[in-house]
Every structure is written in structure tokens, then in C-alpha cells.
Amino acid sequence: MPRIAALAVLAVATALGACAAPPGDDPGVDAATVDLDAATVEPDAAEPAGELRGVWITRFAYSTRAGLEAIIDRAASANMNAVFIQIRGEGDAYYRSTREPWARRLTGVLGRDPGWDPLQVALDRGRMHGMEVHAYFNVLSAWSASQPLPAAEGSVQHALYAHPEWLAVDSTGQNRDSEYRWFSPGIPAARAHIVATARELLERYDVDGLHLDRIRTAGADYSHDAVTQAAFDAARALDPQLTWGDFMRTQVNTMVAELYAAAEEVRPRVKLSASVWGIYRPLPGCNTSQGYANYYQDSRAWLAAGTMDALVPMIYWPIEPGACTDWATLLDGFMAARADRHIWAGMHALDDGGWDFAAITSRITYARATGAQGTVVFASTYLDQDTSRWTDYVGEPPAPGPFAAPSPTPRMSWKD
What we know:
Blueprint (H helix, E strand, L loop, with lengths): L2 H18 L6 H4 L21 E6 L7 H13 L4 E7 L15 H4 L10 H11 L3 E7 L2 E4 L14 H4 L17 E3 L5 H17 L4 E5 L12 H13 L5 H23 L4 E7 L13 H4 L4 H7 L4 E5 L12 H10 L5 E7 L8 H13 L4 E5 L1 H4 L4 H5 L2 E2 L2 E2 L16
Parallel strand pairs: 1-2, 1-10, 2-3, 3-6, 6-7, 7-8, 8-9, 9-10
Antiparallel strand pairs: 4-5, 11-12
């Protein structure tokens, strides 16, 4: 649907919500509970027959089996149909792996068996509700930048502990990222380790999807490690026009292609998706962060190459026409480049730090109107700040929410 028609749908939904508001109620709040099926709008703006309704569950959101199960139960009660459960954060594992150590957050000791398997618990609970379970896998973030990397308990050591030369560094030879140390995507051995780790996961667990995050560099000055720098120098000798940015984007693209090939070989029906920078390139006249040049994340190239099934752009700003971070315009850009693959529109649960479900509903409405195959909200932690937030998605019969009726996930024809 053209953007102008999508905005018209949004206006109709908001107007209907305002008219339906009881005396004294805030029309902006009531607009979140519009019955879109009853609205006189174009057919594809109504609740579709199949859409992905996802929520990110980060590793910081759970610490016990019961806690994780309760989050998934709440997602199911909200008529969500997919959970993205983080099971690899920084070269560690929240599942049984022979390649990487158990995560320190589970027991306080890197490598110590916690006595339960978060990924298997999520699979069992998700299956009970008929939900898709996607293994949320941080690809290139390797360890906290602020904490020393210890030896792991047991026989499986952290990859960066065993291979410190795999560290991504800037032109000074250091990691100066304040959040993480990173694996270098330009080192074939480091990529091979990550691919083998993902392959083992897919061999052992019947997940519906492998969801990639941190599939980028730490910044535009990375990674000048010895192996990557030598490879660039050799490539530059053959092609003097080659830029550092183009070379590094190729390294990240290769990482994605290798993961896709492994997934296709091991579990052909698994859905490979990635959460990506919400601004691919700045909008005209804008000077913002961008995935393409700042982090060498050419996410749209993955769609064109057929090495990605679905992108989830992390557009964590409001719908604000004319703004450099307008959610709708940024989503339009990803939709225009989808190359017959899926776009699941990412959004933050909070607007300016507060809960505004009318804003969430507007984004869901816009995503449907423009043909996106679903939405994913960040994150369960913010919904759990007040568990009534989950119920807003369903609403009540007089004022149904956008997920009032259950929905299957959308079909990927190329996976059939």
C-alpha cells in the first residue's frame, strides 16, 4: 500500500478511537483499542490471516526456569505467536553446548552447569502454547568490555580466552568499545567457530528460527587485527579502488552467508532472521547514525542475496512525520528493499520512557497497512514492569486490542 494510503488508515483508526471514547477519557488512549476489523478502511489494514507477533526476551530478563516460563505464558496470553529467547550473549551459552561455556549469569561462574537448560525450557513452554521459538544469538559480541575474561570452569573455554588474536581492534590496535569486546568478522577461523557453534545448536534443538543480533562491527574503525588488515592489503593491491568500508561490509556479509548456508544444510525449514540497525542510511537531509557506514551492516544486501529470510529493523523511535527518525518512513525504506523476503517491524515498548499503547497500536496498524509480515517488540522486560501491559494487546470485548484474535505466523514460500 502506498504511504499516503497507510497514513489514511492510521488517521481513520485514530478518529474512530476518538469518537468511541467515553466522556472524560483521553481519546489518544482509547485509540489504542480500535476494532480495526469494523473500521471502514482498506482490507489489508484489518487484522491479517497470518502475521508474526513477536517479543524479544533478553538474557537479562530471566534467571530461573519458572521465571522464563512465566514470561512465555504472558506472551501467549497476549496472543503473541513467537518468542525470541536470547541464548548466546557474549560467546557463552544458555543451552547445552560442547563449543562454548555456560553463561556466567546463570550461576555466577563461567562454564558452570546451572542444572537447567533455558533454550529447552523455552521450546517446551512455547510448544505448549503453539508458539514459534527463535534462538536469539548474538553473533560478534564476544565479552563485556568492562570485565576481565576468566578461565571457564570445566573443559570448554571461551573462544576469545583460547584465541585472543580473534579480538576486533581499531586502528590503534585496541578495543575501545565501551560495551563489548568483539570477534573480528575478517578472521576466517573466528567465523568458522561461530558457524560451527550455530550449526551444533541447530543440530541439537528443534528451534523454529535462528535470530541473529550484533551482526556488525563495533564501529567504522574496526577491525584492524593482523589477519584482516593483511587480507585488506592484499585485496587493495588487486583493486586500488577498494575502500575499507566496502571490504568490511563484505566480511560481515560473508559471516551472514556462511550462517545461512549452515542453517539450510542442517535444518532447511528454520527461519534465519536478524535484528538490524533501524536506520540503514540517513534519511535525506539528516545526519544520524546508520548501519551501513557506521557499523558495516549492509542488511539490505542480505535480502537481495537471499542469505536472510527476515529482517527485524530496530526502529526504536515514534511515528513522527518529517523527523529524521520517523518510524514509518524508516520502515518504508526496509519494505522497499525486502526482495520478496520478510520484514518484521521492530519497535520499543516504551515511548520517551513511558507506556503509550496508542503509539504501539499505531505502529502495528501502519506495519499491517504497508504489508510488513509482522512486528516484534523490545522487550519483555519493559512489558513486565507492569504485567497489565501484556493484556493491552488483546484488550476487552468492548475495546479489543490489535491482537484480540489469535493469528498464525506468516508462511515463507521459499521454505516450502
